[in-house]
Design brief:
With 349 residues, this protein is mainly alpha-helical. It has helices at 2-39, 60-91, 93-104, 110-119, 129-133, 167-170, 173-182, 202-214, 219-235, 242-247, 263-266, 292-296, 300-309, 336-347, and strands at residues 140-147, 153-161, 316-317, 321-322. The protein has a two-stranded antiparallel ribbon. Strands 3-4 form a two-stranded antiparallel ribbon. Helix 13 crosses helix 14 (336-347).
């Protein structure tokens, strides 16, 4: 929090220096005009008697001596002020720009504040992100209509919207922008950015990303929270193994809207409380059953690394896998032990 404040102070200091230079130059100009007007010879008679262009002025000796020296001395002083002041001001310009950017992108900055306004509930004038994902980004529920392949009504369900206070720990900024721009087909997440046909400009999408960094939780805090929920589900007998508990995180409790569950994307119906019996059979994410993970990842180590890092757009993974950037990385969410357990569970489906 100190960096934005320091940046603002430095920016104000540089602005003050610039204003002082401008004021000094203006005062110098006014003083020069005043001296020139005071030095003018009074008119000897009316214009009828003696036209202004016929009035006697300083003799050459005085004009090119005392008067000229005074004017040149004032001009030299102003030039010295410019020559010294402007370079000093320019030397601090890179730092001022850097601090200004840091301030704009900070939790008290303009960009983040604009993002907060966009994220706000619709009744407060925002886009309504908070209506689905929670006021603090902790996840929520959204009513959603399921349609079949012909666009016919199937059911109206309560879809669990994932937490966004950890999205910056699971995706990089470009991947978040991609999801904001194009949405997630088959879910309530619509395309919000102009590239995907939505209403938001590139600047507004960036403002939302800045705000998501503001509300982000610390990795250590998140891991402790997730571990506590997993331990609780095992103690209460909701799941038979650690891997199954991780894979179906929040299925019965609704914790964090199931954000950290693999089943959200790999089990049909899981996100709205009606998971298929063949868990891991695939939906948004590919099927993990019948040896699919063994064929995709010959080694458990490679499989675990993919879960920790997620996919990167255009970058290959496993055997003939093509990264889309839509698979989150759970390395800052789950502990290595939890990742190893879920890998063992998936490879046994």
């Amino acid at each position: 929090m100190l960096e934005p404040v320091a940046g603002a102070v430095l920016a104000n200091t540089q602005r003050t220096v610039g204003m002082v230079i401008v004021v000094l130059l203006a005062v110098g100009g006014v003083v020069l005009l005043w001296f020139n007007s005071r030095a003018a010879r009074p008119e000897l008679g009316s214009e009828i008697e003696l036209a202004p262009n016929r009035k006697a002025y300083y003799p050459d000796e005085e004009l090119e001596g005392r008067v000229l020296d005074r004017v040149l001395l004032m001009a030299l002083a102003l030039i010295a002020l410019i020559a010294v002041g402007l370079p000093l001001y320019a030397l601090a310009e890179p730092g001022r720009q850097e601090n200004a950017i840091r301030y704009f992108e900070s939790d008290t900055g303009v960009f983040a504040n604009r993002g907060a306004g966009l994220y706000a509930p619709s009744e407060a004038g925002g886009l309504g992100c908070a209506d689905c994902h929670g006021a603090n980004g902790g996840g929520g529920v959204r009513s959603h209509i399921l349609l079949d392949s012909d666009g016919e009504f199937v059911a109206q369900v309560q879809w669990q919207a994932p937490a966004l206070n950890s999205v910056t720990l699971r995706y990089d900024d470009d991947e978040i922008r991609d999801i904001l721009n194009y949405g997630r087909p088959g879910t309530p997440m619509a395309a919000w950015g102009t590239p995907g046909g939505g209403p938001l400009t590139t600047q507004q999408v960036d403002n939302l990303v800045d705000y998501l960094h503001v509300i982000a939780v610390e990795p250590e805090e998140l891991q402790a929270q997730v571990t506590a929920e997993i331990d609780r589900s095992l103690e209460e007998g909701e799941f038979a193994s650690l891997g199954e508990a991780v894979f179906n995180y929040g299925q019965f409790s609704g914790a964090d809207s199931g954000t950290y569950s693999c089943a959200r994307c790999h089990t049909m119906g899981w996100s709205y409380g009606d998971p298929q019996a063949s868990g891991g059979g695939g939906t948004i994410g590919f099927s993990l059953r019948d040896g699919a993970t063994l064929r995709r990842f010959p080694s458990a180590e490679e499989h675990a690394q993919f879960i920790a890092d997620g996919s990167e757009f255009g970058i290959g993974y496993g055997v003939n896998g093509q990264g889309s950037g839509r698979m989150p990385g759970f390395g800052q969410t789950l502990t290595p032990q939890q990742i190893e357990a879920v890998v063992e569970y998936e490879r046994g489906l």
